[in-house]
Write a structure and sequence with these properties.
- The complex is a heterodimer of chains A (85) and B (466).
- Chain A has a two-stranded antiparallel sheet with strand order 1-2.
- Chain A has 85 residues and is mostly helical.
- Helix content of chain A is 31%, strand content 5%.
- With 466 residues, chain B is α/β, with parallel strands linked by helices.
- Chain B has a domain of 243 residues: Amidase signature (AS) domain (Amidase signature (AS) enzymes).
- Chain B is 42% helix and 12% strand.
- Chain B is globular and about 70 Å long.
- The chains are: A mainly alpha (85), B alpha/beta (466).
- Chains A and B meet through helix 1, helix 2 and helix 3 of A and helix 11, helix 12, helix 13, helix 14 and helix 16 of B.
């Protein structure tokens, strides 16, 4: 798939400046090419998980979400027509 | 400079000024300002909050230290009912439905938000020129850039339009504009402050942090912002830092600096000389200084941008104009997505999204993205070893002084490389403070994770030493 399709950006092409960064990383010396993903240790502790509950949004929150709809009809969001490939 | 927060608090308590007059004065300054720092003013809500503070004072009720203190917010934070544009066309009419945890904590403490501040669109930039609201002009010389991406926040603090501002730092976006505008700016340890309600750029390095004119104000705001939040499960519990601890300067015995940062071709002669002079002054105070080995600046920048672009491509894929944003209709759903995104994202944001999708695609991910992750591990391990040898790492904030407005956008690669000294600490998720001393664009003080206290102590020591 080309980057314009992957990015959902019409006519998008890879940039020269960004490609230079990628060349630098390809040429960088690395002692190991496999990430052990141990850098961040931002793991969530299993006995400290957030409660699995549904929280009702406040009335003001719902009102603003509707205000943000790009297109609205009778309080419902209007989406673009979907055409299956 | 001494704490502005404490000074204003004292003036409010002693009734030298009213909160309403204070807020009116700051709003007037923001309105008149020609530095393009303002995306939207929160005038009516700020004045309503000020009236409440004045009522408490009139009734001789006690007020908290932050109560009535005016502050600014980079326009990437959700504040319920306010426009939150990320300085982009796509979200120029978007209103936050909820409030970010960090901002809510400040509201709960009584601080008064005045302004949503100009910045690079979605944090994509190092100059605050990538914005639909006009390039932010440097506080000291308006022909120069303010730095970025939290440029509006840094200028507002430097010009005293806000007492402090809340920026966001992904690869240097608080520290670099703080340096360019000669103020303090802290990127805390990743996870110390909740990211809930901050528009995601690079989720693995995004940090919330304060910009202010004194070490004490950074400490006060950091204490309020810090803490575990169930809405951001990468957060951790931290302890408050007391003023007494910060004033104790005896803890730092050994300081390190990266030899290759000062020997690099990219650093200007001026910043190199100033930095090395600072090192000599520190040695003269009896502190041991060690030269440390580190990764080449181009490796750091490439590693950071590879991971940042991959994450921003994923994070911004939700912005397709379906549920919110400036939708532009096409003949079907896919075309609607692509027109909406093509027309509404800036050239710099598109460059980063496309770059991210490149490195995540088959054939590229192994040699670029996965290698980037492996390099990040090594960078982090390098830091772990360094902090077994030294208490603090000192570095310049930027290799050069701020460029003229218009120059950065012409050469994106040069802009990426200008982040060489800030991105490494982001990849290591380390706390780093910019101080307005030591070089023309300041110094960065870095400590091991969750060791903000040592950073503030050393900043205090340097304030008196250099």
């Amino acid at each position: 798939m080309t980057v314009d399709v992957l990015s959902s950006i019409k006519g998008a092409k890879p940039s020269e400046a960004v490609n230079k960064l990628f060349e630098a990383i390809k040429n960088a010396q690395s002692t190991n090419n496999n990430s052990s993903n141990n850098v961040n240790n931002n793991f969530v502790c299993l006995n400290d998980l957030r409660e699995d509950v549904v929280n009702e949004s406040s009335a003001i929150e719902k009102k603003i979400i509707i205000e943000n709809f790009p297109k609205e009809k009778n309080g419902y969001l209007v989406v673009s027509k979907v055409i299956e490939d | 400079m001494d704490s502005q927060i404490k000074k204003i608090h004292q003036q409010l308590v002693s009734k030298q000024i009213s909160c309403t007059a204070l807020i009116q004065e700051k709003l007037a300054l923001l309105k008149e300002n020609t530095h393009n720092t303002v995306n939207s003013l929160l005038e009516s809500s700020a004045l309503e909050l000020a009236v409440k503070v004045d009522e408490k004072l009139a009734n001789n009720e006690e007020i908290g230290l932050l109560e009535g203190i005016p502050f600014g917010i980079k326009d990437v934070y959700m504040v319920q009912g306010t426009y939150t544009t990320a300085s982009s066309d796509l979200l120029k009419k978007y209103k936050s439905a909820y409030t970010a945890t960090a901002i809510q904590k400040l509201l709960d403490a009584g601080a008064i938000p005045l302004v949503k501040e100009n910045c690079d669109s979605f944090g994509h930039g190092s100059s605050s020129e990538n914005t639909i609201f006009g390039a932010v002009k440097n506080a000291i010389n308006p022909e120069l850039v303010a730095g970025g991406s939290s440029g509006g926040s840094a200028v507002n603090v430097a010009k005293d339009y806000t007492v402090f501002s809340i920026g966001g730092d992904t690869g240097g976006s608080i520290r670099q504009p703080a340096g360019y505008n000669k103020i303090y700016g802290l990127k805390p340890t990743y996870g110390r402050i909740s990211r809930y309600g901050l528009m995601a750029y690079t989720s693995s390095t995004d940090c919330v942090g304060p910009l202010a004119k004194s070490i004490e104000d950074i400490r006060i705001v950091l204490n309020v912002l810090s803490g575990k939040d169930k809405k951001d499960q990468t957060t951790f519990t931290s302890t408050n830092i007391s003023e007494e601890e910060v004033l104790n300067n005896d803890n730092v015995k050994t300081v390190g600096y990266f030899k290759n940062f000062v020997e690099s071709d990219v650093i200007s002669a001026e910043i190199k000389t100033e930095f090395l002079n600072t090192i000599e002054k520190i040695k003269a105070k009896g502190i041991e200084v060690k030269e440390l080995d580190f990764f080449k600046p181009d490796t750091l920048v490439s590693t950071y941008y590879t991971l940042a672009m991959a994450e921003t491509a994923s994070n911004l894929s939700r912005l397709d104009g379906t549920n919110y944003g400036n939708r532009i209709e096409g003949k079907n759903l896919k075309e609607t997505y692509s027109i909406t995104r093509s027309e509404n994202f800036s050239e710099e944001s598109k460059r980063r999204i496309v770059g991210g999708n490149q490195v995540l695609s088959q054939g590229f991910s192994d040699e670029i993205y996965l290698k980037g992750l492996a390099l990040r591990d090594q960078i982090s391990e390098n830091f772990n070893k360094d902090f077994e040898e030294v208490d603090i790492i000192l570095s310049p904030v930027t290799p050069n002084t701020p460029p003229k407005i218009g120059e950065s956008l012409k050469d994106p690669l040069a802009m990426y490389l200008s982040d060489a000294y800030t991105v490494g600490f982001s990849l290591g998720q380390l706390p780093t403070l910019t101080i307005p001393q030591g070089t023309a664009t300041g110094l960065q003080i870095t400590a091991a994770k969750n060791n903000e206290q040592s950073i503030l102590q050393f900043a205090n020591f340097l304030k008196e030493t250099i």
